[in-house]
Amino acid sequence: MDGMNRTRIIDSKTEQPAALALDLVNKLVYWVDLYLDYVEVVDYQGKNRHTIIQGRQVRQFYGITVFEDYLYATISDNFNIIRINRFNATDIHSFIKMENARGIRTYHKRTQPIVRSHACEVDPYGMPGGCSHICLLSSSYKTRTCRCRTGFNLGSDGRSCKRPKNELFLFYGKGRPGIVRGMDLNTKIADEYMIPIENLVNPRALDFHAETNYIYFADTTSFLIGRQKIDGTERETILKDDLDNVEGIAVDWIGNNLYWTNDGYRKTINVARLEKATQSRKTLLEGEMSHPRGIVVDPVNGTVT
């Protein structure tokens, strides 16, 4: 459950596996193959595979769950819920119709067996399994692996989580979903080097202020300029109005100003204070530009390019 020891239990005669369900008592995996039109079952070791039900009706199965002798499934075309005897597939019963029925699960204590003790129990300091952030059960409930939230690295003790030394890293924006992430210059390392800036749409322009640890971003689709510290705190929108298409921003780290381009109806280059930006914004240049996009500053030599 910690992402290690990945094992294939089925690697043949399968095309479009969809819904999954477990029989925890007998250690069985049930699944729907929407292309081959069957529901099959196999044990945890990938053995004793056989078909429960086959036919065109399986193509409409959306979700499945198992309890006692029966397999329950939602049907996507008519939104029925059906019950199938998993030991006798001719015993099929459609017992309820619900509008837009999709996922399905069985609620009962027997579907979540309790153990007396486990490796992720909370210690006297309130930490699950002694882990600073996340405790994941590994090969069984008796062993565990500690993991850290995004933007933190696991310490040498295998339990504590620490922020990396954010002295040198790359950060980039991407869409769908919109997010700004940080990464080590050695791309072989998958650790995050800042808390991601999430819930964006299309972050095209980025810059930073090293002294304050702020990452500045322009979300062109949301028509805003915002900032967030690399530790994930102090997220705020600093400019919102009259931003048509901001594809370039630049931080003046000496004068503590923000410059940006506006490639909308008005072609402009603008500036504002980093603090109280809405009360101090000013248009520096307007017109005589076709598409002002990228912008960089050199405050030491007093230039904007």
Automatic annotation (TrEMBL):
GO BP annotations, alphabetical order: canonical Wnt signaling pathway
Where is it found, in Gene Ontology cellular component terms? plasma membrane
Q: Can you provide one Gene Ontology molecular function annotated for this UniProt record? A: Wnt receptor activity
Q: Which InterPro entries match?
A: 6-blade_b-propeller_TolB-like, Cueball_EGF_LRP_Nidogen, LDLR_classB_rpt
- Pinpoint the residue ranges of every LDL-receptor class B repeat in the record: 27-70, 213-255, 256-301
Instruction: Show the Gene3D superfamilies listed in the entry.
Output: TolB, C-terminal domain
Q: What is this protein called?
A: LDL receptor related protein 1B
